[in-house]
Every structure is written in C-alpha cells, then in structure tokens.
C-alpha cells in the first residue's frame, strides 16, 4: 500500500534565501538544548554556507532580471541564479531538457545578467 502526500504549495528559493531560512531554523534549534540538529539539516546548512554568495535581496533582484528575459521562466531563472553558469556550455546544460534551444545571442544576453552578479 502506497501513501501519497498531497503537495499543498510550492515556492522556489535561491540559495541565499534558503540560507536565511536555515539560519533561522538553526538558531531556533540551538535555543532548545534537547533538540539535536538532524543530519539532513546540517548538510543543507553546510551546502548553502558554501555556495550562497549573494544576499537574499541581491539574489531576488538577480532572479527578477532573469525573468524579464523572453526565454527564461521562473523555474529556470532560479536554477540559473543558483548555479551561476560562467559560459555558454554550462548555460546550455541548464536548458538541456527544454523543447527549444537558444541562439548564441540569447545565451550571451543571459550570461551578461549572470556576470553582473558573479
């Protein structure tokens, strides 16, 4: 017998926003001496501390600028903001599962936005 959980809500986060959420959660857990930090939480915190280079406000602006571009949807904008691809090949990997491909000019336009926040 399989039990499925219903997805009530979904929200995309940048690494910087996830870092802020995890810091709040970590502080809450530290206040209660009896609560241990679970392995998954510790690994997630370690990951965002290593890779989140922007402030949450900056990362939100980054995503907003990416979403203004024609070929970038919300999910892809967050993926690009989190990965910060440095060249066309890395950026093409982000779009590999899409049913369309981007021209060199479109890739360069996205990379110009990425370079502002790199």
Protein architecture, described:
By secondary structure, this protein is mainly alpha-helical. The chain folds into two domains: 37 residues, no CATH class; 62 residues, HRDC domain (DNA polymerase, domain 1). 63% of the residues lie in helices and 0% in strands. Helix 1 crosses helix 2 and helix 1 packs antiparallel against helix 3. The protein is globular and about 55 Å long. It starts with 14 loop residues before the first helix and ends with a helix.
Assembly level: single chain
Q: Major sheet, described briefly?
A: none
Shape: globular
Our count of helices gives 6
State the separation between the terminal residues, measured CA to CA. Answer: 48 Å
Counting DSSP E segments of at least 2 residues, the number of strands comes to: 0
CATH architecture of the largest domain: Orthogonal Bundle
Report the portion of residues in β strands.
under 5%
Rg calc? 17 Å
Q: What is the string of helix and strand elements?
A: HHHHHH
- The CATH topology of the largest domain is given as DNA polymerase, domain 1
Helix share of residues? 55-70%
- What's the CATH class label of the largest domain? Mainly Alpha
Domain tally: 2
Can you give the mean pLDDT?
89
CATH superfamily annotation of the largest domain: HRDC domain
Structural class computed from helices and strand pairing: mainly alpha
Contiguous low-pLDDT stretches (5 residues minimum) are none
């Amino acid at each position: 017998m399989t039990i499925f959980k219903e997805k009530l809500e979904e929200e995309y986060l940048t690494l910087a926003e996830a870092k802020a959420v995890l810091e709040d959660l970590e502080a809450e857990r530290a206040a209660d001496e009896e609560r241990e930090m679970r392995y998954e939480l510790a690994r997630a915190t370690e990951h965002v501390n290593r890779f989140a280079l922007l402030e949450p406000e900056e990362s939100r602006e980054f995503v907003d600028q990416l979403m203004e571009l024609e070929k970038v949807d919300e999910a892809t904008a967050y993926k690009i903001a989190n990965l910060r691809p440095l060249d066309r090949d890395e950026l093409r990997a982000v779009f590999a599962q899409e049913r369309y491909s981007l021209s060199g000019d479109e890739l360069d336009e996205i990379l110009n936005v990425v370079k502002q926040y790199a």
